[in-house]
Design a protein that fits this description.
The structure holds two protein chains of two kinds.
Chain A (H helix, E strand, L loop, with lengths): L1 E9 L8 E4 L2 E2 L4 E5 L6 H9 L1 H4 L4 E8 L2 E2 L5 H4 L3 E4 L12 H12 L3 H14 L15 H13 L5 E5 L7 H18 L2 E5 L3 H4 L5 E4 L8 E3 L1 H7 L5 H9 L8 H7 L1 H7 L8 H5 L2 H9 L7 E10 L2 E11 L4 E5 L6 H8 L7 E6 L9 H4 L3 E4 L12 H12 L5 H9 L14 H13 L5 E5 L7 H16 L3 E5 L3 H7 L2 E6 L2 E7 H7 L6 H6 L7 H8 L1
Parallel strand pairs in A: 4-9, 4-10, 7-8, 8-9, 14-18, 14-19, 16-17, 17-18
Antiparallel strand pairs in A: 1-2, 1-3, 1-5, 5-6, 10-11, 12-13, 12-15, 19-20
Helix pairs in contact in A: 4-5, 4-6, 6-7, 17-19, 18-19
Chain B lengths: L11 H16 L4 H18 L8 H22 L9 E8 L10 E6 H27 L2 H6 L6 H30 L7 H28 L10 H26 L4 H22 L15 H23 L1 H4 L13 H8 L3 H5 L8
Helix pairs in contact in B: 1-2, 1-4, 1-10, 2-4, 2-12, 3-4, 6-7, 8-9, 10-12
Classes of the chains: A alpha/beta, B mainly alpha.
Chain lengths: ~550, ~350
């Protein structure tokens, strides 16, 4: 269906090809997953299928890419529109019209399909994706998961034979991600659509893949094989595979169900950690756990008291009461739109509470002048680019030193500590996602705030960048920083959080030690805890240490 | 080709014609009773016919704008402006003495009932016009209207639609980035803050435009059909010639001497240009999903609006005193009967237009 024949792509101005010797075929009706660390050219390969590389992006493509027998060299993207549907990373930048129904029809209108056909397909697609109730809704009012489904629907209506998806679930909460993946599975099973998809969050998608193409390193030749084979050699793998490798299971399990069947002996071998619910504390969080036991009332760093926020007539937060103590890491979890970002924004004074109060280090955030506030609390926003204004990394660091009135060089030293090897002269927009996040983190940390907030820090990060971030945050917490992160990433939360707060509809529905809260909820439980339940293990690292 | 089930929505152009006709009618009179009647008529139709999508709130925004315009007009009449020679002094504000070169401008001073009434009539006329435009927006969004453009103008229409959805995004970006300045410990207010986020906002907007362009290209935007060369040449000739004809015709109509050739030239030009557009439509193979249909009801709705406009134009020519009640001397405005009855014609859509239920 999709055939890459010895393809190399070199972008204008680059000395090395971004991808080299790509030579594989995606057979008709299969779901092929493209995996690899960031910066290895996954998006380039995806866009080469739709012809956007090189027709739209420029650069030189050697070799040959054919889709349904059409050569992308001789066919422009618009001439491939009837056989390939492409959904990029950000569904919002994909929408041309403003309502759901029009968006679904747009592609067919461009292809000139007769009105009766269009009408029928729009109805079918609305049903297939469960969008019937939303058909007249403006797209801007939809949630992230709904928008992603509309984006997929909008490329499905022309009945393309191949579907190209770039990180379709990375911005979604676990439940919405499952919704989208269920739709994709239906397309493959019922309609025989061929799907080529890239995704960092393998724990979500690996079980749906028929084949996996691994891009091990930038410019390396990709290898294609069955998921189990490829996971044995891949540099990126989900926790279930990690656990399988640790326990020496062959073939490697890819789903929680497979792993659970094999895990009986592992469970016996592990036995329940001595102090049952505090299993994690015994392993890693000793200092914190003992500290909080010694002080019945730990010093409060920040908190909210019956806090409510109403924005545009929607109650984003209702009656929230919580306290944050120094040295603890709190994960805020919940569906898209549950109020996680609003809570973080209220803690840094970007949003005014409509009733109740919030305080950080003895000050009320929205009444504190910004220069004083950054010494108390720092937020790394969802898109770190929002924080970065300068032309080069060096200028950004200088500006941060000035803003925080720190000794010149503080920010740069921090940055080199956090992630060595970011050149001074690069434009912040040209950094990789992980590098940009680290730069924003360094900028925020320059003012040495005791409370650090992060909004969706792992969006677009590969496993390596994620584990670097986890190590970093753990070190910061050990130094006494309190960290609050809003995240959909259950594995990250399991890895570093001491405490998890679940939000739903602006209310706190659970607040307690991470091990207790996440294992109690099927959608927020990490894979390891699902496999080893009823024992309360959360991460592979814990299991590895326990087995020693 | 079999018929698509009838869309339950009226053609957007009918609503725009109807609303703008009511607006035209409003410009023909300053009689507050007639103007109020016009506002009530349009408000009633909006209340019964507007679609129930959660997004159709422009009407209240336009109402607020109209009220603001009225108040500003009254405020200006009281505070500044040249006084009308009236006899009913309401109150006297302290007057700021101005040098003689500023003659004709006045700050403070005597406020007469005549000045206020005149300002009120004038403001109300403007407010009615705005409310009518608001009604058009509420009944059929401008994007729907743009979708009804002929095929040859389609790409221009898409550009406008994209621009319309783009502006709100840009504003949201500016807000978000200005707020983010707080996180760097910089004040988030003031002009400097706005200037500093300018570049990142533009960079972001540019990135998004490029992404959108890529998405549109990948979805088949701009696919063209093969058109034989003679047709292509005829299209160009007709469009260009038509536009020239329209220009010359308009010039002829506006100048004193050109009365004879003006109108025919304008009409010929228009016909040629429209034919050109139609032929040009062949180049795009696009079809339209659930196109709005121009049916009998659309005709009636548009006609009812135009009847109101025509009646009031006629009335203002025949009976100017009734439609422009005097201010000096101050008289109570009377309701001219048959123009008022004509305005009520505008209510017709409320009875014939489809019910505002969402198409299911």
């Amino acid at each position: 269906m999709i055939r890459f024949k010895d393809v190399s792509v070199t972008y204008a101005g680059a000395t090395e090809p971004t991808v080299r010797n790509v030579d594989f075929e995606v057979p008709e009706g299969e779901l092929v997953l493209l995996v690899g660390p960031s910066g290895t050219g996954k998006s380039t390969i995806l866009n080469a299928v739709s012809g956007l590389v090189p027709h739209f992006t420029g650069g030189t493509l050697r070799g040959r890419v054919t889709v349904a027998g059409r050569d992308t060299r001789t066919h422009k993207p618009r001439e491939l529109a009837d056989v390939v549907g492409t959904v990029g990373q950000d569904p919002l930048s994909h929408f041309v019209t403003d309502t759901v129904e029009d968006e679904l029809a747009y592609g067919m209108e461009s292809l000139g399909l007769p009105p009766t056909v269009m009408r029928r397909r729009v109805e079918e697609t609305l049903d297939l994706l469960g969008l019937t109730d939303l058909r007249t809704r403006p797209i801007a009012t939809l949630s992230g998961g709904q928008q992603q489904r509309v984006a997929i629907g909008s490329v499905l209506t022309p009945h393309p034979r191949a579907l190209i998806l770039d990180e379709p679930t990375s911005a979604l909460d676990p439940a919405a991600a499952e919704e989208v993946l269920a739709v994709l599975q239906r397309l493959v099973h019922d309609l025989g659509t061929t799907i080529l998809m890239a995704e960092h969050r393998l724990e979500r998608v690996i079980q749906y893949a028929d084949q996996v193409a691994v891009l091990p390193a930038p410019g390396a030749t990709p290898a294609l094989g069955t998921p189990a084979e490829m996971m044995a050699v891949s540099p990126v793998y989900p926790p279930v595979v990690d656990l399988g490798r640790l326990a020496g299971w062959t073939p490697l399990p890819l789903t929680v169900r497979d792993a659970r069947r094999r895990a009986a002996s592992l469970r016996n071998q592990l036995t329940q950690p001595a102090s049952a619910p505090k299993g994690r504390g015994e392993l890693r969080d000793q200092p914190h756990a003992t500290r909080s036991r010694q002080h019945p009332a730990p010093p409060e760093l920040a908190g909210a008291h019956s806090l409510s926020v109403t924005r545009a007539r929607i109650q984003a937060l209702r009656n929230i009461t919580l306290t944050i103590t120094p040295g603890e890491t709190v994960a805020l979890m919940g569906r898209n739109g549950a109020g996680k970002s609003t809570l973080l924004n209220t803690l840094v004074g970007l949003t005014k509470p409509s009733s109740g109060e919030v305080h950080v280090g003895g000050a009320t955030p929205h009444r504190t002048p910004p220069p004083a506030l950054i010494r108390r609390v720092g937020l790394v926003p969802q898109d770190p680019r929002d924080l970065l204004y300068a032309e080069t990394v060096a200028a950004e660091c200088r500006a941060a030193d000035q803003d925080a009135q720190a000794t010149p060089g503080t920010c740069r030293a921090l940055l080199s500590d956090l992630l060595p090897g970011i050149p001074d002269t690069t434009h912040p927009r040209d950094l990789s996602e992980g590098q940009r996040l680290t730069l924003a983190l360094a900028v925020v940390l320059t003012a040495r705030p005791p409370l650090l907030l992060l909004d969706e820090p792992t969006r677009g990060l590969d496993y390596a960048a994620k584990s670097r971030l986890a190590t970093l945050l753990r070190t910061l917490a050990a130094e006494g920083h309190a960290i609050v992160l809003a995240t959909h990433d259950v594995e990250l939360a399991a890895e570093i959080a001491h405490r998890v707060i679940l939000l739903a509809d602006g209310e706190v529905i659970a607040d307690g030690p991470a091990a207790d809260v996440v294992t109690a909820s099927p959608s927020f439980a990490p894979q390891v805890s699902k496999i080893l339940a009823p024992q309360k293990w959360l991460t592979v690292t814990e299991v590895r240490e326990a087995l020693r | 080709m079999s018929e698509v089930p009838t869309p339950t929505q009226l053609h957007p152009a009918a609503w725009w014609l109807w609303s703008l006709s009511l607006g035209t009618a409003a410009t023909r009179t300053t009689n507050p009773l007639l103007l109020t009647l016009l506002i009530t008529t349009s408000a009633y139709v909006v209340a019964t016919c507007r679609p129930t999508t959660p997004h159709s709130h422009p009407y209240s925004a336009f109402l607020k704008l109209a009220l603001t315009v009225l108040l500003v007009r009254l405020l200006f009449a009281t505070a500044f402006g040249s006084p009308l020679p009236g006899t009913h002094t309401l109150l006297t504000l302290p007057e700021v003495p101005l040098p003689h070169w500023a003659q004709g401008i006045r700050i403070g001073g005597r406020i007469t009932a005549e000045t206020l009434t005149f300002a009120f009539y004038d403001g109300l006329k403007l407010a009615t016009l705005l409310i009518c435009v608001g009604a058009a927006n509420a009944l059929a969004s401008p994007t729907r209207l743009l979708k009804s453009l002929p095929g040859a103008l389609y790409e221009m229409g898409v550009a406008v639609v994209v621009a319309l959805t783009f502006a709100p995004n840009l504003i949201a970006d500016v807000r978000r980035l200005r707020a983010a300045r707080r996180l760097r410990g910089r004040p988030d207010k003031g002009l400097r803050g706005l200037l500093q986020v300018g570049l990142p906002v533009l960079e972001g907007a540019l990135e998004r435009s490029v992404a959108l362009a890529a998405a549109m290209d990948a979805r088949g935007y701009g696919r063209t059909a093969e058109v034989p060369a003679p047709v292509r040449r005829t299209t160009t000739a007709l469009t260009l010639g038509g536009l020239l004809g329209v220009c010359a015709g308009t010039y002829g109509l506006l100048t004193a001497e050109g009365g004879a050739y003006g109108l025919p030239l304008l009409l010929a030009g228009l016909t040629a240009a429209l034919t050109g557009l139609r032929l040009g439509g062949r180049r795009t193979p696009r079809t339209r999903y659930r196109p709005d249909r121009w049916d009998a009801r659309a005709c009636l709705v548009a006609a009812s609006g135009m009847a109101v406009a025509a009646a009031l134009t006629l009335a203002s020519a025949q009976d100017p005193t009734a439609l422009h009640p005097g201010v000096i001397p101050l008289v109570a405005p009377a309701l001219p009967l048959w123009p008022a009855a004509a305005v009520l014609l505008g209510l017709l859509p409320a009875f014939i237009a489809p019910s505002p239920k969402e198409p299911s």
